[in-house]
Design a protein that fits this description.
pyridoxal phosphate, Aspartate Aminotransferase, domain 2, fruit ripening, 4-stranded antiparallel sheet, S-adenosyl-L-methionine, Aspartate Aminotransferase, domain 1, 1-aminocyclopropane-1-carboxylate synthase, alpha/beta, pyridoxal phosphate binding
């Protein structure tokens, strides 16, 4: 072991989180409608499979793009040799225009300020390398995506300090929570370099309000720190209130020529909105030229292939297709979200009201044997091993309240979702029946105890000789 680095032998990757352990159990026994109908259904994966037919239809209509041709002539050799880490200009242009379209064209983006990365994971880590030194900290509102413990910390040495949010106000960020997190970092002798938020939220499935976004801008202005807005789910907002980008807030506040303008950075990816995590397309958008220059150099360690860029530049440049896709995808997400919420309600389970994302933040506190995280893990194990549904426990998302779970709905067929809800309902019904029987049993015991007590009480007043009072 002495021949290996500390990074290779340390246990700080986060792979032992229940979030990842659930995946491992799923992979051992994956559900398949035909081959393994009693297997584990994967509901812990935030993947969008609802609109693949739209993408496949476009590919059928545009064989040149899929075949790496331009005007009928092969450009395979050109793409195979291209390796400039600045990226294809045509793709960067198409990407920033797509980002603007998602935001209702209320904001525009400059191609010279965007850096391509191999997914949002790479984008977030690259920003950590650019903005903080090992041992410095970023504040994150809870609950947050479990992968951030890996993405932000593992290789960079950056620390995460939680901004404690609660169900009392729907887990919204407050001024008090921000200040308490900042003070906690100082008590731990950590220099705070910024705040990172996911908007829309993963795992909550909610968009941040203008009030929260303004609160964040005020906070980073006062503390002279950075703000990273991970907007990877920006195209999944399927109902009101609509999505508001941090860039829109900055423009409304006329921040273009202020110091804070350069301290706000956006992360984006096509993994969720287009459902293309396997294509590994992410981006950093920053108004700070030094950050852009440094991130561009770092991107050579995780480039987006030229073939991927060429194909997607053709797809995203088709404005009619892009607009139709965004609209239709939102409709499908809304319908599928409604089916999950309805299925949960039939099982006697509620969830946080949400308007975005590929998941719901589900409230199972009433199913806990006690108000503890030990009870949450006990319930989670039953759901994974007995009910055979892989969902993510709130503790893996650093939620401060036991009994919340993230449940994904867009990575499976409608029939599979229906089956998962049937399984969950049967499980909840069994718990309810057990609790009812226990309650009845306890009532009978209490009744007998009361009858015995009355008999003893009456006996103490009887005449010891005659049995009469």
């Amino acid at each position: 072991m002495g021949l290996l680095s500390g990074k290779a032998t340390c246990n700080t990757h986060g792979q032992d989180s229940s979030y990842f352990l659930g995946w491992q159990e799923y992979e051992k026994n994956p559900y398949d409608e035909v081959q393994n109908p009693t297997g584990i259904i994967q509901m812990g994966l935030a993947e969008n499979q609802l609109s693949f037919d739209l993408l496949e239809s476009w590919l059928d209509r545009n064989p040149d793009a899929a075949g790496f041709k331009r005007d009928g002539q092969s450009i395979f050799r050109e793409l195979a040799l291209f390796q400039d880490y600045h990226g294809l200009p045509a793709f960067k242009k198409a990407l920033v225009e797509f980002m603007s379209e998602i935001r209702g064209n209320k904001v525009t983006f400059d191609t010279s300020k965007i850096v391509l990365t191999a997914g949002a994971t790479s984008a977030n880590e690259t920003l950590m390398f650019c903005l903080a030194e090992p041992g410095e900290a970023f504040l994150l509102p809870t609950p947050y995506y479990p992968g951030f413990d890996r993405d932000l910390k593992w290789r960079t040495g950056v620390e995460i300090v939680p901004i404690q949010c609660t169900s009392l106000n729907g887990f919204q960020i407050t001024e008090m929570a921000l200040e308490e997190a900042y003070q906690l970092a100082q008590k731990r002798h950590l220099k705070v370099k910024g705040v990172l938020v996911t908007n829309p939220s993963n795992p909550l499935g909610t968009t941040m309000s203008r009030n929260e976004l303004n609160l964040l801008v005020n906070f980073i202005t006062e503390k002279n720190i950075h703000l990273i807005s991970d907007e990877i789910y920006s195209g999944t907002v399927f109902s009101s209130p609509g999505f508001v980008s941090i860039m829109e807030i900055l423009k409304d506040r006329n921040c273009e020529n202020t110091e804070v303008w350069n301290r706000v950075h956006i992360v984006y990816s096509l993994s969720k909105d287009l459902g293309l995590p396997g294509f590994r397309v992410g981006a950093i958008y920053s108004n700070d030229d030094t950050v852009v220059a440094a991130a561009t150099k770092m991107s050579s360690f995780g480039l987006v292939s030229s073939q991927t860029q060429y194909l997607l530049s053709a797809l995203l440049s088709d404005k009619k297709f892009a607009q139709n896709y965004i609209s239709e995808n939102k409709k499908r997400l809304k319908q599928r979200h409604r089916k999950l919420v309805s299925g949960l309600e039939k099982a006697g389970i509620s969830c946080l009201k949400s308007n975005a994302g590929l998941f719901c933040w589900v409230d199972m506190r009433h199913l806990l044997s006690s108000n503890t995280f030990e009870a949450e893990m006990e319930l989670w194990k039953k759901i994974v091993y007995d009910v055979k549904l892989n969902i993510s426990p709130g503790s893996s998302c650093h939620c401060t309240e036991p009994g919340w779970f993230r449940v994904c709905f867009a990575n499976m067929s409608e029939d599979t979702l229906k089956l998962s809800m049937q399984r969950l309902k049967a499980f909840v019904d069994s718990i309810t029946t057990t609790l009812h029987n226990q309650s009845n049993h306890q009532s009978i015991k209490n009744s007998r105890r009361r009858s015995f007590t009355k008999w003893v009480f009456r006996l103490s007043f009887d005449d010891p000789m005659t049995g009469e009072r």
